[in-house]
Amino acid sequence: MSGIDFDCRACAATHLGTDGTRDRPWPVLSFAVPDLVLRLAPHELRDAEITDDLCWIERPEGAEQYVRVSMHVPIRDDPERRMEYSPWVSLAEEDVLDILDHLGDEAYRTVYPGRLASALPGYETAGPVSVLVHSRGDLRPLIGPDPTNESPLGRDLLGGITREEAELRIRAFLLR
Which top-level group of life is the source organism from (predicted)? Predict the structure, then answer.
């Protein structure tokens, strides 16, 4: 396959012939909001606070919290390349507050249990996938596989996917 062309929302430039290398990275497959937000009724949206990286939804049964994270899927047999997603995860309230309390603390590292809250192309499942969310100071938290949950996503986070599979997923994502 030839490189991938795309219009970047982050820098407002058109990137031509990207191949997943450091000099010509593929686009990050980013999700604007957690999937649940897309299903909220207008009156429920009034009880939601959404920023670029946090989503807090007040409900009668309790609040729901979501954090945007980074996820890197390695490309098999090619350590220079990786496919990047920026999905949302559901976390416990105390974990979100802990992340906020430690923003800017480069020395602070911990892991939170979470559930994927974005439907990722190539990882259609019957329900939310358990993941581990690793804090990284000022950087977005990073998803890692939950070793207690065997899933295609966990397998790919550890073992990678082919370059062809990555390019097919990226192209499909850009067409939606």
Answer: Bacteria
